[in-house]
């Protein structure tokens, strides 16, 4: 296997002997080796380049240079695309007017990413993941576009025009070129992310990240009693590395035993009862997820080891290091709704989609968000089939939750039954939805859906047509109107009294 993929690896060949010994593609070996090196550098960065010992300028320079080295080692000359994308976007930020800067930057950054994805997929290696330099570009795209919107919010809008989270994220000063490159290409997140806000990264570099501040999902005692000493990430890093080891073991043990492609094998479909096909599909998707658990948790551990990712203290006063975490494994595996699964999977991408699209799109934000997610992921047709199906699933799940769930809240036993049923339905729906995301091609994806008679597609359409559901924005508006009317009634009663 290693020798077959060596030619498509554009990075360093220094670790070729190791690739041949362990029989893994060279690009994967390079990736893991670079992440291990980044973990060591993160510990060194936190101890020897601590904000109390060195200036933000030095920390920015070192973080950028180390990130550039890792990119060159993994992707060779393809890593120049990172600089080209960042350079074009920064030029748009500087030279275009503030009123439309965020829109132009969004178009240029996403357009360049899509151009690179088209070239990689349809010119070089369709269906291959070797030398996938567009992976880091996807994270850089998130960072650049987020920064553009945050600069626009900070320099063109008043605080009254922003919601609390936008107010916190708003950037009040145009970042320098060094700050911009450090944010996009630092060694902690250059290969696998995760995305973070510029203000949080800047606070980390300057050493103010442990001061109490607003968080989108803040909880615990951070806003009340704040510890003055800087918490250690040691326990969090060890815990996350242990999760990585378990995830890698599970993935390597099961991925070849339960291939998703078997779900469209003619012999398997014709000889296997439908209920067993459903169970197999769930197990096959369950075997795929640990790969993402490994990559994202390892990236999170690297950031934590550098001292980045502290989110406050829990109710017991223990430090929490989940500010930029990308997933919650238990919440994923035991999700009882489609939305709950998505909210805990690839969290930072979900937040990015929410901040740049869902909260700002004036027409059908749900469909627009799924479409943007498909465009961002790549140009394989399977991605678009997955996200179009996801729109139907989301609407149907929302309708079921609004109309049926209240009837099961009358007692704990009824709610337990509801949770068990919705857990099973959620896992089946997720597995059914993401099959094209794994198979990539239109033909194989439609072959799978035909073998299931498009049953969940038809069921979703039926549910949406039969069960009424209000849009979230309409609900929010009605709630606000209700609050206003309540306030007015209270004021009238007070005046009357």
Automatic annotation (TrEMBL):
Ranges annotated as spanning the membrane: 29-49, 61-81, 101-123, 382-400, 420-439, 451-469
MF (Gene Ontology): acyltransferase activity
Region called Disordered, residue ranges: 477-497
GO CC annotation, single: endoplasmic reticulum membrane
Keywords: Acyltransferase, Endoplasmic reticulum, Membrane, Transferase, Transmembrane, Transmembrane helix
Ranges of Polar residues composition bias in the record: 482-491
Name assigned to this protein: Membrane bound O-acyltransferase domain containing 2
Originating organism: Takifugu rubripes
């Amino acid at each position: 296997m290693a020798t077959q993929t060596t030619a498509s690896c554009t990075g360093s060949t220094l670790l070729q002997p190791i690739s041949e010994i362990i029989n893994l593609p060279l690009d994967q070996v390079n990736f893991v080796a670079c992440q291990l090196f980044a973990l060591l550098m993160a510990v060194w960065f936190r101890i020897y380049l601590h904000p109390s010992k060195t200036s933000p300028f030095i920390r920015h320079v070192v973080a950028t240079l180390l990130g550039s080295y890792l990119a060159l080692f993994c992707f060779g000359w393809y890593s120049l695309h990172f600089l080209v994308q960042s350079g074009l976007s920064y030029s748009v930020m500087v030279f275009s007017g503030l009123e439309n800067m965020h829109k132009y930057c969004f178009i240029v950054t996403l357009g360049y990413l899509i151009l690179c994805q088209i070239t990689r997929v349809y010119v070089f290696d369709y269906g291959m993941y070797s030398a996938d330099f567009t992976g880091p570009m996807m994270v850089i795209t998130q960072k650049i576009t987020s920064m553009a919107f945050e600069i626009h919010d900070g320099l063109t809008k008043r605080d009254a025009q922003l919601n609390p989270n936008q107010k916190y994220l708003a950037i009040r000063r145009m970042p320098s070129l060094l700050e911009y490159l450090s944010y996009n290409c630092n060694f902690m997140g250059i290969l696998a992310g995760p995305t973070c806000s510029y203000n949080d990264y800047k606070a980390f570099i300057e050493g103010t990240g442990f001061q109490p501040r607003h968080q989108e999902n803040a909880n615990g005692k951070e806003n009340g009693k704040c510890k003055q000493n800087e918490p250690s990430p040691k326990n969090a890093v060890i815990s996350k590395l242990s999760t990585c080891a378990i995830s890698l073991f599970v993935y390597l043990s099961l991925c070849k035993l339960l291939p998703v492609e078997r779900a469209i094998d003619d012999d398997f479909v014709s000889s296997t009862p439908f209920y067993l096909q459903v169970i197999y599909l769930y197990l096959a998707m369950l075997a795929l997820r640990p790969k993402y658990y490994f990559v994202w948790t390892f990236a999170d551990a690297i950031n934590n080891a550098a001292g980045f990712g502290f989110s406050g203290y829990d109710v017991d006063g223990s430090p929490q290091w989940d500010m930029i975490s990308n997933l919650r494994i238990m919440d994923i595996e035991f999700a009882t709704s489609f939305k709950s699964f998505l909210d805990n999977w690839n969290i930072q991408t979900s937040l990015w989609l929410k901040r740049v699209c869902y909260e700002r799109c004036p027409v059908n934000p749900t469909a627009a968000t799924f479409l943007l997610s498909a465009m961002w992921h790549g140009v394989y047709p399977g991605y678009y089939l997955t996200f179009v199906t996801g729109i139907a699933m989301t609407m149907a799940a929302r309708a079921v939750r609004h109309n049926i769930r209240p009837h099961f809240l009358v007692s704990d036993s009824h709610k337990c039954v509801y949770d068990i049923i919705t857990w099973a339905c959620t896992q089946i729906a997720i597995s059914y939805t993401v099959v094209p995301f794994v198979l990539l091609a239109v033909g194989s994806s439609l072959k799978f859906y035909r073998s299931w008679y498009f049953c969940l597609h038809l069921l979703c359409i039926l549910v949406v047509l039969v069960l009424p559901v209000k849009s979230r924005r309409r609900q929010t508006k009605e709630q606000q109107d209700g609050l206003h009317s309540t306030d007015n009634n209270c004021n009238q009663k007070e005046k009357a009294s």
